[in-house]
Amino acid sequence: MSALIITVNKDNSIFDIGNKTKIYIFDNVEEYHDELCDIIEQNKMSYQELKVLVESWGGKIDLIDLSSLIKNYKKICNEGLPF
Questions:
Q1: Phi and psi at residue 19, in whole multiples of 5°?
Q2: Per residue in 5-34, is it b (16+ CB within 10 Å) or e — as a string?
Q3: Which of 31, 46, 51, 79 has a CA-to-CA distance to 61 between 20 and 30 Å?
Q4: Residues 6+ away with beta carbon under 8 Å from 39
Q5: Separation CA 66–CA 18 (nearest Å)
Q6: Whole-Å CA distances, 83 to 34, 74, 76
């Protein structure tokens, strides 16, 4: 059985459905929020190019697909935290 994944924004509007959703996780880039959203929305850079840019700002970026995140979440729920 595969999971049904529904993503909902703060207004309770569904904006994406599916397992192929990618999640970008940024650290230390608060002042670049709008620019990063524009780059991703417009598909202006590859992940590698975006990583170089973010690191040049002193930040960090990770990318994970939603299905992997869900699998890891389920594993943690079933087995508990590793520490």
A1: -90, -10
A2: eeeeeeeeeeeeeeeeeeeeebeebeebee
A3: 79
A4: 45, 50, 53
A5: 8
A6: 36, 16, 11
Could you tell me the two tokens for 21? 């959703």
> Within 13 A of 12's CA, how many CA atoms are on the CB side?
0
Using left for φ > 0, alpha for ψ between -120 and 50, and beta otherwise, residue 65 falls in beta
SS3 at position 63: strand
Q: What is the pLDDT of residues 21-66, one digit of tens each?
A: 888 999 999 899 999 999 999 988 999 999 999 999 999 999 988 8
Q: Under 8 Å CB-to-CB from 58, ≥6 apart: which residues?
A: 28
Say what the alpha-carbon torsion angle 50, 36, 27, 73 is, to the nearest 10 degrees.
-90
- What contacts 64, CB < 8 A, 6 or more positions away? 22, 23, 25
